[in-house]
Amino acid sequence: MLHNQRFFNSIYGPVKSWRFGQSLGIDPIGAVSTCSFNCVYCQLGEIEYQTTTRQVFISTEQIQQDLQPFAPWDVDLVTVSGSGEPTLAQNLADILTAAKAITKKPLAVLTNGSLLTDPDVRADLMIADRVSVKLDAIAPSFSQRINRPLDGLDLGRLWAGLWQFRQQYSGILSIQTMLLSTWSDQQQADYITLMQRLLPDEIQINTPTRPKPTRHELDARGNHTSGSRPYPVRSLRPVSVEQLQIFCDHIQSATGIPTRYPQHQLIPSTQA
Ligand code: SF4
């Protein structure tokens, strides 16, 4: 299903990312936010269209055209993310191949991992140099509460897809975890056990530092770290810097996997 994309530009940024440096964004989803999740902290606001069905939202030709004005693409990498879950784009492989040919830059895909049980999705992602997979919970009730996935996308299925992908993928695999509260000792231990089995190349622990827009704004695809916004937002309470630091150190010493958090974006714990 193609939505009305008349005033839509599929390229945004460059934005400064704490994870990747200077990044140019490709949005393969379009003007209507579309995802299999509806995370409580999502920067797109409440997701407008929840689905697990892959389809072409933005043609590869449009993305190729939209990339041209950004020449010579003087960025650290090109990230496919945008207005929802990028693996829902059926032309993801074509988009990645075209972006690589045009920009000659490393490519990253940020995904919630919900479609990784699909062999076609895993094959598409092989083209990317880096894939970041969201994993916000190790207990099903947490996942339901934080990610609010469509029926059938339970944690067992997500984990199975992620495990299959880990076996096949030779690029850089990151796990991205958003903390909305400090985890108990047991939750931390379970997470570490999972990471010891999965062995991603890196782990990124984050907490909501940006208020959540109450409705979908294309401007929110960028990386606003501070200042006022020209649209209504709702504040979220982040975990403190100290708690993130302790958890990151704990993970890294137990697993040996580089584990990072966005130090420069966070506020002192007295305000958290
Ligand atoms: S997976 Fe990403 S795009 Fe989808 S609802 Fe969650 S934060 Fe938003």
Would you mind describing this structure in some detail?
With 272 residues, the chain is α/β, with parallel strands linked by helices. The chain has one domain: TIM Barrel, CATH 3.20.20. 29% of the residues lie in helices and 18% in strands. Strands 1-2-5-6-7-8-9-12 form an 8-stranded mixed β-sheet. The protein is globular, with a radius of gyration of 18 Å. Pfam families: Radical_SAM.
Summary of the model, kept short:
The protein is built from 7 helices and 12 strands.
Chart the SSEs and their pairings.
Elements: E1 11-17, E2 21-26, E3 34-35, E4 49-50, H1 60-67, E5 77-80, H2 92-103, E6 107-111, H3 119-125, E7 130-134, H4 140-147, H5 155-168, E8 172-178, H6 185-198, E9 202-206, E10 212-213, E11 233-234, H7 241-255, E12 259-260
Parallel strand pairs: 2-5, 3-4, 5-6, 6-7, 7-8, 8-9, 9-12
Antiparallel strand pairs: 1-2, 10-11
Helix pairs in contact: 1-2, 6-7
The chain binds iron/sulfur cluster (SF4).
